Amino acid sequence: MAVTEQSTRDAFFIGGEWVKPATDKRFKVIGANTGEVIGSVPEGSIADIDRAVVAARAAFNGAWGRTSGAERGAIINKFADAIEKRIPEISAAVSSQNGMPISLSSQLEGAYVVGLLRYYANMASTMQFEERRPSPMGFDTLVRREALGVVGGIVPWNYPVVLSILKIGPALVSGCTLVLKPSPGTVLDSYIIAEAAQEAGIPAGVINWVPGEREVGAHLVAHPGINKVAFTGSTAAGRKIAEVCGRLLRPVTLELGGKSAAIILEDAEIAPLLEGMGFASFGNNGQTCAASTRILVPASRYDEIVDAVASMAKSLKVGNSLDPETQIGPMASEAHRNVVERYIATGKGEARLVAGGGRPKNVGNGWFVEPTVFADVDNKATIAQEEIFGPVLSIIKYKDEDDAVRIANDSDFGLGGTVWSKDSLHAQDVARRVQTGSIGVNGYMLDINAPFGGVKASGMGRELGPESLNSYLAYKSVYLPAG
Ligand code: NAD
């Protein structure tokens, strides 16, 4: 897809075919760099979700439900091949919709996704789904891990491809089928991934896509044909989904918001810190759930580090997300920029502005905001407690390491975080004390082979790593009577 052209789609990928939507309603796709319409796609309705769930159920009850792990592994590898060919198309679609710098989308929404699928392909091919276990009671039991069934997957707009693959990968390994509901904010990429699935020969109905608004997502969550919900999005929506799933006793994983801390220890070196913060704190223009946006600085080095972080923020290249040199692109939508700007206005009343705070000049009509840094922030302030989801950092002074850990843990959230020090072992000790689902030492990058997820209001359950399979498989014991 050339991003200079309008991208118009007229169908949904359901049951292995491009099918006509149930209604004539459509979404306009607005480019984050320009604020102009760059495409349009049909808007999914309840009837479209119903049709997709029927297709996913038929696939699960049919041949797909009887495939071996090795067969599924081979198909996942073909899917990786088909996505690999499309990386430039995928990254351009993502960056033009949500403002992610293309240098990042070509990696995290491209190469990373391909590596992740190959990782899952290998897991499917090698994993034992059944074990014959001798019992001390004198007989054997077949301990099986069986696919839960049809998965309802709901994803946000900030990393739409990788967050979808985080659900597709373990579902395919396990033998589940899926109905995915992309966010209205990023829909074009889901069409490219569906084309790749079709080219890879993923059997009809195994993955179905219906982009829609939240009511359509709510219908999917509560649908009687769904066996498990995999949700990534805001904590507010996650709470509602958890309530519904609780009532239905439906397994659910929730990957939610964050307000993570960067703990800068007294011996931290400035140059690697500033370089690492480019992704760890400002990655995807701050539209990253696990971003370290509370910067905890020792009193002994406070002025030096405040100056350095402010200078770094001012030096970041803000511009069109499709320019490979761009470090900070626009916010994903006008509505989202309004939210970020409201937080900046609140911050001006709560703390000392040391960088940014306005709209950058000469970058066009997109939804840009300047990389912004506040110093002298109280950890109780709104800008330190609430997720802003933009390029806005809060610098908080701490007295000693115990104080730093206390401040880091004084948050409703617990998703990511970082510790910065010349002494990696010492930083690891501090990392162990932070209540969070993941934390990086002198940098932050999700390891495909390690579980990722949140504690507290950041969610429940884990994606990535072998642990991600736990929520797509159920144990079954088949007792084999002696003799
Ligand atoms: P959002 O919660 O508004 O929407 C996310 C998705 O859920 C969208 O597809 C939306 O249509 C759908 N949705 C919303 N309410 C729903 C409901 N009641 N029932 C069913 N579906 C519903 O979030 P967003 O603004 O699109 O994304 C940003 C949020 O996602 C941030 O809070 C961010 O931290 C979080 N996030 C978390 C992770 C993680 O792994 N923990 C990763 C990325 C983003």
Question: What attributes does this structure have?
Answer:
single chain; 483 residues; alpha/beta; Aldehyde Dehydrogenase, Chain A, domain 1; Aldehyde Dehydrogenase, Chain A, domain 2; seven-stranded mixed beta sheet; six-stranded mixed beta sheet; binds nicotinamide-adenine-dinucleotide
Description:
The chain has 483 residues and is of the alpha/beta class. It has two domains: 7-256 and 458-478, Aldehyde Dehydrogenase, Chain A, domain 1 (3-Layer(aba) Sandwich), CATH 3.40.605.10; 260-447, Aldehyde Dehydrogenase, Chain A, domain 2 (3-Layer(aba) Sandwich), CATH 3.40.309. It contains 14 helices and 21 strands. It has helices at residues 46-61, 69-85, 87-98, 102-126, 160-174, 188-200, 214-222, 235-248, 270-280, 302-315, 334-350, 382-385, 401-409, 424-432, and strands at 7-8, 12-14, 17-19, 26-30, 37-42, 130-134, 140-147, 150-154, 177-181, 207-209, 228-232, 252-255, 260-264, 292-298, 352-355, 372-375, 392-398, 418-420, 440-441, 459-460, 473-480. The strands form five sheets. It has a seven-stranded mixed sheet, with helices on both faces. The termini are far apart. The structure holds nicotinamide-adenine-dinucleotide (NAD).
SSE layout and pairing:
Elements: E1 7-8, E2 12-14, E3 17-19, E4 26-30, E5 37-42, H1 46-61, H2 69-85, H3 87-98, H4 102-126, E6 130-134, E7 140-147, E8 150-154, H5 160-174, E9 177-181, H6 188-200, E10 207-209, H7 214-222, E11 228-232, H8 235-248, E12 252-255, E13 260-264, H9 270-280, E14 292-298, H10 302-315, H11 334-350, E15 352-355, E16 372-375, H12 382-385, E17 392-398, H13 401-409, E18 418-420, H14 424-432, E19 440-441, E20 459-460, E21 473-480
Bound molecules: nicotinamide-adenine-dinucleotide.
Residues 154-159, 163, 181, 183, 213-214, 217-218, 221, 232-234, 237, 240-241, 255-258, 289, 387, 389, 415, 454, 459 line the site of nicotinamide-adenine-dinucleotide (NAD).
